[in-house]
Amino acid sequence: MIDFTRDYEQVLSSTDSGLFCRLLEAAEKVRLASVGDEVHLRGLIEFSNVCQLDCYYCGLRKSNHAIRRYRLGLSEVLELSRTARELGILSIALQSGEVNSNRQVDYICSVVRAIKEDSIRDGSPGLGITLSCGELSYEQYLRLFEAGAHRYLLRIESSRPDLFSRIHPPVQFYGRRLECLDMLKDIGYQVGTGIMVGLPGQTCEHLAQDLDFFKERNIDMLGLGPYIPHPQTPMYNTSNPIIVEPYINTLKMMALTRIALPDTNMVVSTALQTIRPDGLKLGVKAGGNVVMPVLTPEEHRSDYALYVNKRFKTLEVLKEEIEAAGYSMALGKWGDSRHYFRRLNLPYPECITG
Ligand code: 5AD
């Protein structure tokens, strides 16, 4: 009998479709018991694609001169956050390429403050804000937290130091990324991380270690997505991947993560929804309980191409697909990570309505 809490490599390398179905069933059961049938929303505002890094896999890398670089103005971001609120999306995610200057951090702080001031009314806590802006210093993370952001996403990309160093230039350090995750936790953020599935050279053993990494670090939020080769990156021409079914393996990773960390928030990544039309449906079944509707203005969307053919879905389409899978879209509430509150021995605020 395979044990879904332990036999990771065996599950990941299996081609048995019966086993895959049993895994999804087990994950669905755990999910319903721990976080219920809701799928929470994070309105995604990709406020800048300017990036100082040169990750070998990412379309935003600084050496990609084929995209137009942009940064939205404060009032534009504020306007988008109002749109989110009007749609009933009470948590937003501000994402950008990595720029670690104090000037950039000042700008993000002012955006966060403006959104908070604008949305806090009659003692309500306003919009929930997640940031995803890369590696910064302790002081910078602290300033952003004090400005009002309370969740931060920083993917480890692969928890294996050797694989991490193969997909990043030598100026980027695995150890530094770990330090950042520690700092974020220390400051009090709800901390999210994640990986890509199907990277060249990545094996089922690596993925099994990623699962151990999530458990050991007691992660509050997770984002697991298939790696999608981007033609304007050096990794596009790298030899064939070892994991040939990134879609199935991402779903397996999501299901195993849900079973390992029952009360985390886990996103159904846009990448998963991009590589297969039924990505959202199966992602939700595999334990995903967050989706990120894209609010970035249409004119900039194609310039925020981490990978190619990124799929865009309206809130209505997301709702239909979530309901068709038998789940419900949670409008009008923050939808924080239950795991975070349990980790800190605090009661879960069932319904922060912003
Ligand atoms: N394919 C899939 N995901 C990618 N990301 C970046 N480039 C790609 C790609 N080519 C993911 C990384 C990053 C997140 C913002 O997007 O995991 O952390």
Structural description of this entry:
- The protein has 354 residues and is of the alpha/beta class.
- It is built from 14 helices and ten strands.
- The strands form two sheets. A seven-stranded parallel sheet has the order 2-3-4-5-6-7-8.
- Helix 9 runs parallel beside helix 11.
- The chain is globular.
- The relative contact order is 0.17.
- The structure holds 5'-deoxyadenosine.
- The site of 5'-deoxyadenosine (5AD) has 12 residues, from loops.
Secondary-structure map:
Layout: H1 8-13, H2 17-34, E1 38-41, E2 43-48, H3 74-87, E3 91-96, H4 102-119, E4 128-132, H5 138-147, E5 151-153, H6 161-167, H7 174-187, E6 190-197, H8 204-216, E7 221-226, H9 246-260, E8 265-268, H10 270-275, H11 279-285, E9 290-291, H12 298-301, H13 315-324, E10 328-330, H14 338-343
Parallel strand pairs: 1-9, 1-10, 2-3, 3-4, 4-5, 5-6, 6-7, 7-8
Helix pairs in contact: 2-9, 3-4, 4-5, 5-7, 8-9, 9-11
The structure holds 5'-deoxyadenosine.
